[in-house]
Amino acid sequence: MTGKNEKGRRGEEEKMRMQGSFRTPHSALRTYKGFSLLELMIAMFIMIILISVAVPTYERSVRHAKETVLKQNLWQMRSQIDRYAADKGKLPKNIDDLVTGKYLREKPIDPIREDSEWDEEMGDDPNSTESEQGLKDVHSRAEGTDTEGVEYSKY
To answer: Domain extents for the chain?
Structure first.
């Protein structure tokens, strides 16, 4: 009877080993699923390095995009001032005249300041016989310099 019991126990042990539930003290640590604290810390360290490289690059590209939009808005307003003067024979009084005259759909937004207020440079209207004043140029009211060191107000 002892031989039969011994044989049955070995069969059960073999089944348990095949199922993965037979553990020795050495293999008990390896059966847990998940990551160790060291592995998590290494992954976090790698993420921090990647983020520290990506964030400044992203901020630089956003700033460059805003500067490009500012230059484009100023160019568009200046060309429409010239067009208005050529069509009407006089300079507009302000940017709103360009909008009401349908030379601009709406008053452009300064992307640096995020508002639609501009420095309007007034001057003598060369087309006027009564030496009236008119809008000659437009500048940004934003403070600071661009990535090339040029002041925004000098655009």
So the answer is: 1-33, 37-154
